[in-house]
Amino acid sequence: MATGMKILDDMLKNDFGFQHMMWVFSGRRGIHCWVCDEKARNLTDEERTAVAKYLEAYEGGADDDDNKLTIEANLSRPEDKGGEWIHPSMSRMQNVVESGFKQIFLRPGGPNSLEVDKIRDRAIAFVEKRVSVTAGATAKMFANALKDPMRGDPAAAWNRASKALQSQGYGWVAIALQFAFVYPRLDVNVSTKRNHLLKSPFVVHPGTGKVCVPVDPTKCDSFDPDRTAPKLMELMEQWACGKARRLPSMEIFDTFLAGIERERETAASRIQIP
């Protein structure tokens, strides 16, 4: 989610010029982004769909077999030497994707590390689907590189595996795999329909009991849903004991509202009354 925030925050600001965005923890596993610039609020459903499609890179069903990475066609062009033909925005995000991939999948002992059998098998299956039928040896080289004893170093195993792909002209598959594993997936229905119900900040998730607090995208790496997001019962206990305190996330909310108010005041000052 932190990597997804960094990617979308950058693209919404630099590609669309939006400024007034508030990121809100969903209460369980996801993150919501409120884009509240006046020009964003006035977009039609069709225009909102266009924005969502621009941001999307990995779409399809819940099963990996049904999914398609939208940038693959350009990544796999014969004249491509490492991603030069993908859209400039996606190319700009490649460093963020690589950093997120390293943090999530190459961290020794991590729950999603390539050391975990099901994660490693998923990576191997991804590669096998994308190398040509005649390049079975390439897929086998990749698999063998990942399956070698890692000795607690999944990063070294990934380097061997990606170099095996690069040596056979399939370096683009390694790039595609990182995008597929890390790039955020949008809830398109929420993003494109103006009449869709939205979860307000500071509501309580009915399943986890956690408060859906705003999150600072510049500090998202330090946000821990298990420790940073308070639970309703904890807040009630603090209140009962006279230890209630203002949530730090309220500062994020206040800053967001102040920005919207400045935009409103600026727009009002431009109105000329004859």
- CATH class of the largest domain, named Alpha Beta
Helix content: 40-55%
Instruction: Average the pLDDT over all residues and give the rounded result.
Output: 84
- Listing every helix as H and every strand as E from the N terminus to the C terminus, the arrangement reads HEEHHEEHHHHHHHHEHH
Task: Using the alpha-carbon principal axes, give the shape.
Answer: globular
Strand order of the largest sheet: 2-1-5
**Spatial separation of the terminal alpha carbons:** 50 Å
Unreliable stretches = none
- Sheet-strand content, in percent, reads 5-15%
For the secondary structure, the number of strands is 5
Biggest beta-sheet profile: 3 strands, antiparallel
What is the count of DSSP helices, taking H or I runs of 4+ residues? 13
| Tally of domains | 2
Quickly give the structural class. Answer: mainly alpha
C-alpha-based Rg, rounded:
22 Å
CATH topology-level name of the largest domain = DNA primase, PRIM domain
